[in-house]
Amino acid sequence: MKDSQKIFLAVKDYLVSAESFQLIYDADLDMLKTNPQPTDEDLPKYYESENYISHTDEKRGLFSWLYQVVKKWSLRRKVNLINGLNNGSGSLLDVGAGTGEFLKEAKDEGWEVYGTEPNKNASKLASEKGILLKSNLDDFVGKEFDVVTLWHVLEHISDLDETVLKLVNLVRPNGTLIIAAPNFKSYDAKHYGNFWAAYDAPRHLWHFSKKAIEKIFSENFVLQETKPMVFDSYYVSLLSEKYKTGNSFSLKAIWIGFLSNLKAKTSKEYSSHIYCFKKRT
């Protein structure tokens, strides 16, 4: 282990395997790495849970229902965001498109949409909406897009450096790259520690700070704006409280979510952020 790296926290997979992992802090980038990281062959098994709700459209149970309700509101916000950044419609690539709802919303507003999704069940649900997804970014080699989005996806990608290079080539000059990711420096992350649901090891292979995201993309992109994802603190706190106490619903979790957003008004460290980059020309 490098001198600039040290064990930050020991965490557990509460969703599938109950296995333990370490989060290794990289001081150079101000980010964490899950250790050990599953191989590409083993990683899919950690997603094999009916409770992994980003691969489903179901509203069964409290967390699924809350997730889908908030997602509907978020979809409108996301489309408004890309419309504003690109002065209307254009070509859009969504990486890790899940069940395709964001792309469908964008398509309905006139965007020319493309997407990737490695999970076959999620991709099938997208196709039923008329959104046909590719399995990986290699299917788009040589193409450029006005906007490329990764909504809570970058933390899942094993080949991070290679993927960043691919993203550089996929965004046209002066085009837009949007990254949404959890922030391990938020108040709810500090409060829940190893129970913080957004660590989500080993599905989340990387854990970013604001500094890390900007540094990773700074060579080819200019960070124009960072936006908070205020609902994430409530959802993540509810799930974290469930991991910690077993309670399916907790008023304390709602309070922690509120407190996290309140403190972030000063610290600017929200539970999750949206980073809006413009590609250098």
CATH architecture: 3-Layer(aba) Sandwich
- Cα-atom radius of gyration: 18 Å
- Poorly predicted regions: none
CATH fold naming: Rossmann fold
Distance between the termini: 37 Å
Total count of domains: 1
Could you characterize what this model shows?
The protein has 281 residues and is α/β, with parallel strands linked by helices. The chain has one domain: Vaccinia Virus protein VP39 (Rossmann fold). 35% of the residues lie in helices and 24% in strands. The strands form two sheets. The protein has a six-stranded mixed β-sheet, sandwiched between helices. Strand 6, helix 4 and strand 7 form a beta-alpha-beta unit. Helix 1 runs antiparallel to helix 7. The chain is globular. The N and C termini lie far apart (37 Å). The relative contact order is 0.14. The mean pLDDT is 92.
